[in-house]
User: Fold this.
Amino acid sequence: VQLVQSGPELRNPGASVKVSCKASGYSFSKYYIDWVRQVPGQGLEWMGRIDPEDGRTKVSEKFQGRVSFTRDTSANTAYVELLYLSSDDTAIYYCARPESLGWSWGQGTPVNVSS
Assistant:
């Protein structure tokens, strides 16, 4: 199992960012993809998940109305898009896939929001 994420992003406040997570080594549609972030100095924060098979999503209440999860099954890739960025969104964003005894993780995508 391998999850490879897109590269670092720098955004101005008020902008949006879209991060990708390309999966390989397994059947993409068979496992949820979760998105988690880590703000500097804080713990992991769950943002939500997508079921690649049918595109259904579950979104953390904190991000309702500001985040969307999509996928492209032809490219085995999941995406998270976060709107209306503020400096509070500066974090490393991770995709993760559940395993029987844990998780497989992407390498993380740093997103820096600064004017």
